[in-house]
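Reproducibility note. Readers wishing to regenerate the assembly model reported in the main text can use the exact inputs given here. Chain order matters: entities are listed in the order in which they were concatenated for prediction.
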Amino acid sequence: MTLEAEEIRGKDRAQYGVCAFLALTGVAVIFDALRITHLTSSNDPIGPRPVPVILGIALLVTAVIYAVDVARGGRGEPEAGEDVDLTTPVDRRTVLLLVGFFLANAALIEPLGWVISGAVLFWGSAFALGNRHHVRGLVIAGALSLGTFYAFAIGLGVNLPAGVLQGIL
Amino acid sequence: MENLSHLLDGFANIVSPINLLMALIGVVAGTAVGVLPGIGPAMTVALLLPITYGLEPTQAFILFAGIYYGGMYGGSTTSILLNTPGESSSVVTAIEGNLMAKAGRAAQALATAAIGSFVAGTLATLALVFVTPVVVDFAVGLGSPDYFAIMMLAFLAVSIVLGTSRVRGFASLLVGLVIGLIGIDRVTGQQRLTLGIPELADGIDVVVVAVGIFAVGEALWVAAHLRRKSVAVIPVGRPWLSRQDWRRSWKPWLRGAALGFPFGAVPAGGAEVPTFLSYAAEKKLTKHPEEFGKGAIEGVAGPEAANNASAAGSLVPMLAIGLPTTAVAAVMLAAFESYGIQPGPLLFEREPILVWTLIASLFLGNLLLLVLNLPLAPAWARLLRIPRHYLYAGILFFASMGAYAVNAKPLDLVLLLLLGLLGFGMRRFGFPVLPLIVGVILGPRAELQGRRSLQLSGGELSGLIGGPVSYTIYAIIALILLWPLLRRLPIFTKPRRPA
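Running the prediction on these inputs yields the following structure tokens for the assembly.
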């Protein structure tokens, strides 16, 4: 695998961020464990605390070992794939747009219902990923969300809200 | 022979029109989704889980078995025609398979993969019929300390043995274990890591974790690096094999099956090692060594058979001990739990009809796959041309639907996104995802078994060491941990003879 152009210059320093994430998670887990009441009984001599404490310590230790590995020039290989072009830098705009539409779906699914929120999600994601056929995208989005609603919510009894379209669908 | 009569009962259960229809839908849906670029078997299974929700367990698992084998087959089609495997287990198939496709022998590559999968899958499922009850008999006698030890071994195996980087694998495992910790402690009722959010009291559903890490994480990762040029897809006709292809394929199929099953069945196995071993073996045994590196059919037949056989093998620990060793098995375990069914030694006693119908439907799924996919291969290949913006939008769409449908809570969608971002980060920094999933699923059970063991010993740590089984397992664990040191001992560092 060829190295990414942006990374050839030196170590992949962003990995220290991962160390920080692991260490912070470890600290958070330990703090949370110390917060909970320590209950033990003859049925359960060790209680709910030791496991999170052990995990927290293990996370801290792993963070340190990982940092040493990074300092020595260790790096994880980014995942390749059929549609992945690792020579390009991360396309932040696309990712942020996707996150936005994803959250919109989470916010809209109960008030508006799956048919509308799901269609927004599909249309928006396709748009974020570079779809410029807006009408075609909308038609596919509508067909997918209506189709899944009828097949799953009505056909199979899966939990999908009808929202404002209650009574119409 | 008791097993065979159980199995026949299982077949008798399948042969109803509705169940056959389920198997057919499963195979078709599994292949159609699995063949899509960027979607490996584990993601296929996670994404298609919702279609089993409204069904009764038996039908759901018949459908599921079809999805599983369909997803596996679809994945190998993608790797042969595109040469960029979605899963590490298809890496080897892709090497010679894609070379064959480029040399104009795509039809033969797909045919030997399909027939090889059928042969190996059938043999391995047959082996499963005989091996699983033996493992069950063994597992019935195990106590909590033994289970605890087995789970520790599984943790180490998935995080340290299978990956390329120990520290990254271990970090991934720990993050998974922490996610598994979230929720009310089952023994004392104390809330852990719930941040006071009531919805988190039940923990994060494993389906949400799997869909978030596999599907959303993958979609975001691909979106960040989307290849703007379209990928060249090799056109393919109807798969077929000439007499000579048959002659060259059947031995690799059998050898692949023999290699794959045992590796799949042990906790530290996985599919990568047997596929590589099979490739190496075929390269050595072939009468056409000059073709290796240019598209040798043995190099597709063997590894693909090994891959399928190990997939069937991985169902042995999953069903008999409740121990998932692959991502697909982990998702399957989650599916069992969503029906309130606990895999493990008691499963065969409590739900014999379900288990044997599931096993019978593995045979059926395998057969349907062969019958359907040989003629349909050109149609599947067309799916590879699906515009990428619709493909990944569709993945996000179905991922959201599936995750929401589990509990009908909008918060799950937010969690799904957070897990997706975690999956994105793991792909960016080269962290393996399997340890995380296994940690989420097995973490709570390991804690439960560990605490039970200590309950018996009144809190003395000696309670964790039960009997001969756990001694043996801890010895294996010690070996795994010390291996980097042991390897430097003089006995292992003899100069290697050229292979």
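We highlight two features of this model. Chain A touches chain B through 87 residues (CB under 8 Å). Residues 92-165 of chain A form one domain.
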